Amino acid sequence: MKYLVLLLDGMADYPVPELSGKTPMEVAHKPNIDLLSSKSEVGLCKTVADGLSPGSDVANLSVLGYDPMVCYTGRSPLEAASIGVNLKETDVSMRCNLVTLSDEEDYADKTMVDYCADDISTEEAEKIIEFIEAELGNDIYKFYSGVSYRHCLVIQNGTTELGKMTPPHDISGRVVGEYLSKADAAKPLLELMKKSYELLKDHPVNLERIKRGKRPANSIWLWGEGRKPQLQDFKEKNKITGGIVSAVDLLRGIGKCANMSVPIVTGATGYIDSDFTAKKNAAISLFEQGCDLVYIHMEAPDECGHRGEVQNKIKSIEIIDEQVVGPMMDYLKGTPHRILVMPDHPTPLTIKTHVSDPVPYLIYNSEAEVSGPATINEKTAAETGVKIDFGPSVMDKLIGKLS
């Protein structure tokens, strides 16, 4: 039996005025996903437990079968694992975004113009992070470069009692002052952020980007603090081998911490311009190498949600349906298999950030097809009356631990 998880990050949404009150899932032409829906168990899954923040870290851990209430130690440590940072027990890791802020004199008066600095390239970002490490790094602070705008700061003998360190994608277009932590322990980190603006506003990489009509990566933004994660080995937990295909350090880090196979996919960006065919090919390669379960994580719908890009969010679902879902269905034909299709959390276009509402899911079993709705979206999933209240049990249901 082969198991395939198709995780369309942030795909679920709220009714969108520009779409006459429909959601991108309702509007998108997704014949392959809908074909699966018509032969699958369809329902809603609560991936984010009450009391937890609806981040992709918590939600994807849940879909993978891990209880975040037990194993979650913070977002950045998972990403640190992906880029090869060996955290000590006394270290605290933080996500270090490269962002674009407006140019008001007082840092607190600046606006979060772009949480990803116009999707800065990894090559450009690496030069900036190397510069920040040379200028601000020391025996306490160490900066590590990751992918695109997503990087890492490791604090020696650090604390996680930092108050509210706000994710930048939660405050797009807002003045940042009220979202800066007021905790005393966070003050040195806020100073790093302020100093970074002065260092980066005239950095050669940014001056060149401005010439090309791109937004500058003119500040670091620190958040997502946590300590070294401890995840149970995926094979030991589930009695099957697993692999993760993803462009983002978070998912790659989860995979590495769970001792899953995590290939590097050239051309995978995490946005709508990602090489989805390359991700599909990587998934097939994992199956061919003996993986029992392959988890394909696709970030594009989430990124479009954060940016408020209505048509691109629809387009991202359609591209994934055509370039990943259909070909993977063809590959699995003739082999006993089960497929799980779902988002990790909604990323509504109207508010441009994550919410913890239950998400639609389908589970297809080639050996036990059932009658499901002709299309899957937020409404049809709710109408089935099927509900998974404990998110991590969706993995048990997929692999047959639960009926």
Count of structural domains: 2
Lateral arrangement of strands in the main beta sheet = 8-9-1-10-11-2-12
Largest sheet: 7 strands, mixed
Percent strand: 15-25%
> If classified by CATH, what would the architecture of the largest domain be?
3-Layer(aba) Sandwich
Number of strands: 12
SSE arrangement:
Layout: E1 2-8, H1 24-27, H2 31-37, E2 41-45, H3 56-63, H4 68-71, H5 75-82, E3 92-101, E4 112-114, H6 122-136, E5 141-147, E6 150-155, H7 187-200, H8 204-211, E7 219-226, H9 234-238, E8 242-245, H10 249-257, H11 276-288, E9 293-298, H12 300-307, H13 310-332, E10 337-342, E11 359-365, H14 378-383, E12 387-388, H15 393-399
Parallel strand pairs: 1-9, 1-10, 2-12, 8-9
Antiparallel strand pairs: 2-11, 3-4, 3-6, 3-7, 5-6, 10-11
Helix pairs in contact: 5-10, 6-7, 11-13, 12-13
What brief labels describe this structure?
alpha/beta; globular; 18% strand; Alkaline Phosphatase, subunit A; seven-stranded mixed beta sheet; 2 domains; five-stranded antiparallel beta sheet; 15 helices; 403 residues
Can you give a write-up of this model?
The protein has helices at about 25, 30-35, 55-65, 70, 75-80, 120-135, 185-200, 205-210, 235-240, 250-255, 275-290, 300-305, 310-330, 380-385, 395-400, and strands at about 1-10, 40-45, 90-100, 110-115, 140-145, 150-155, 220-225, 240-245, 295-300, 335-340, 360-365, 385-390. It is about 35% helix and about 20% strand. By secondary structure, the chain is of the alpha/beta class. The longest helix is centred in the C-terminal third of the chain and has 23 residues, at about 310-330. The protein has two domains: about 1-70 and about 230-400, 3-Layer(aba) Sandwich (Alkaline Phosphatase, subunit A); about 80-225, no CATH class. It is globular, with a radius of gyration of 21 Å.
